[in-house]
């Protein structure tokens, strides 16, 4: 039995809620802070239903210094998983200040509160979007970084801040150094196998998988495939899709690594969390149809601004250093997405 208590920021969200399940199932105590700007408290009730365990919830904003200080005083937090943030690329181009304030300033406030409470283990939700365009389509952690939109830049800036924070320890010879894992997600999809928690986007989805499943169930009329003239095997965009449950297992592995010999003297390290193989938009549609027996009505549309043709992860480092690799196949990701969609046609509403 693990008695450690983990603060999960953004724990009511899509990935955070799956992380809460995984943490509780692994014997951790869980405290959630979420301002519910993109989620509902019902999600947390379902996390408790799945696990048969309870968690502590604070409805608050991570930019609220007083609220954070209170949480660190009230709860014996040992580490933080930081998911809270805004994540829509298009919206970040329209509202850059909102994105920098929420994602960058929010993380500064959190890191200050952690520092004051002497809680210095942090697992951060970064993104493959920090790489930008690259010479190779298989991204390794040592590739140059160069995000191409404000959302990606918030992730890049937070990574830089956290690297600086960790480097400062070596200058001042800190007694309790920062231990930080920057987890660069590729394309998380899927849902918990119970069908009780899953992705519940507001309004019309931006991302492929929720869009496809809403077309298949009849909520949306037709999928637009953004471009069939990319230099890829079938002309459509290729991405590395990863099951959200595999993804959050990677977080628990990262947390364990932060407590191990490897991070004994502290450090800040980035890891790709991807399956290591790419599927095209047409692959996704075809597999979705096979797995669900439904037809996905689609048309070919112009390319979406800012999309790259193809990229996927080199996940070797996470395997070598965290002992983690993605286990679930595309079929599982789609079956679990569909199960969630059918059981919750209106999401959590
Ligand atoms: P989500 O929107 O479902 O979850 C984010 C949660 O954070 C929500 O519950 C929201 O209410 C909360 N939140 C936002 N700002 C907050 C604030 N200032 N204070 C308190 N709570 C706040 O998103 P998700 O898909 O679960 O993503 C989680 C993290 O992973 C985000 O940081 C996102 O940028 C990152 N990420 C997501 C993807 C993806 O494709 N889903 C890919 C790469 C990285
Ligand atoms: N696509 C369509 N039609 C749609 C939606 C998407 O054809 O309606 C295509 C896109 O052009 C792309 C692929 O499906 O080729 C995947 O698109 P998503 O919007 O699902 O995902 P992205 O790869 O664009 O971006 C996602 C997250 C980002 C994150 C990135 C990390 O949305 O936040 O993965 O790799 F940064």
Topology:
Elements: E1 5-9, H1 14-25, E2 29-34, H2 42-51, E3 56-59, H3 65-74, E4 77-82, H4 89-94, H5 96-116, E5 121-127, E6 138-139, H6 150-172, E7 179-185, E8 187-189, H7 208-216, E9 223-226, E10 238-239, E11 241-243, H8 244-258, E12 267-273, E13 279-280, H9 281-292, E14 298-301, E15 312-313, H10 316-322, H11 330-343
Parallel strand pairs: 1-2, 1-4, 2-3, 4-5, 5-7, 6-15, 7-12, 8-11, 9-14
Antiparallel strand pairs: 10-13
Helix pairs in contact: 1-2, 1-8, 3-5, 5-6, 7-9, 7-11, 9-11
Bound molecules: nicotinamide-adenine-dinucleotide and uridine-5'-diphosphate-4-deoxy-4-fluoro-alpha-D-galactose.
Uridine-5'-diphosphate-4-deoxy-4-fluoro-alpha-D-galactose binds next to helix 7 and strand 9.
Task: Give the structure's gist in a few sentences.
The protein has 349 residues and is an alpha/beta fold. The chain has a domain at 5-190 and 241-273: Rossmann fold, CATH 3.40.50.
């Amino acid at each position: 039995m693990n008695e450690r208590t983990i603060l999960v920021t953004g724990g009511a969200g899509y990935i955070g809620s799956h992380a809460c399940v995984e943490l509780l199932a692994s014997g951790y105590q869980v405290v959630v802070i979420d301002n519910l700007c993109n989620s509902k408290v019902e999600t947390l009730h379902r996390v408790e239903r799945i696990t048969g365990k309870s968690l502590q919830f604070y409805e608050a904003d991570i930019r609220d210094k007083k609220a954070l200080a209170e949480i660190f005083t009230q709860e014996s937090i040992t580490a933080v998983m930081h998911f809270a943030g805004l994540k829509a690329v298009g919206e970040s181009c329209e509202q850059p200040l909102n994105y920098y304030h929420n994602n960058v300033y929010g993380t500064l406030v959190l890191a200050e509160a952690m520092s004051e409470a002497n809680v210095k283990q942090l697992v951060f939700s970064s993104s493959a979007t920090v790489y930008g365009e690259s010479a190779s389509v298989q991204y390794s952690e040592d590739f140059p970084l160069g995000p191409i939109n404000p959302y990606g830049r918030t992730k890049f800036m937070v990574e830089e801040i956290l690297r600086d924070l960790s480097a400062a320890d070596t200058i001042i010879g800190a007694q309790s150094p920062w231990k930080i894992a920057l987890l660069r997600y590729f394309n998380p999809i899927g849902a918990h196998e119970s069908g009780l928690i899953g992705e519940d986007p507001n309004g019309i989805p931006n991302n492929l998988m929720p869009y496809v499943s809403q077309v298949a169930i009849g909520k949306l009329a037709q999928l637009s495939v953004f471009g069939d003239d990319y230099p890829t095997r079938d002309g459509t965009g290729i991405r590395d899709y990863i099951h959200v449950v595999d993804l959050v297992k990677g977080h628990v592995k990262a947390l364990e690594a932060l407590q191990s010999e490897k991070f004994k003297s502290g450090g800040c390290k980035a890891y790709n969390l991807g399956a290591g193989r790419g599927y095209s938009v047409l692959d996704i549609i075809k597999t979705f149809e096979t797995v669900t027996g439904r037809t996905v009505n689609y048309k070919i549309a112009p390319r979406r601004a800012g999309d790259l043709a193809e990229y996927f992860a080199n996940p070797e480092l996470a395997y070598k250093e965290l002992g983690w690799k993605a286990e679930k196949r595309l079929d599982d990701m789609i079956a679990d997405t569909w199960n969630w969609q059918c059981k919750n046609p209106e999401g959590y509403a």
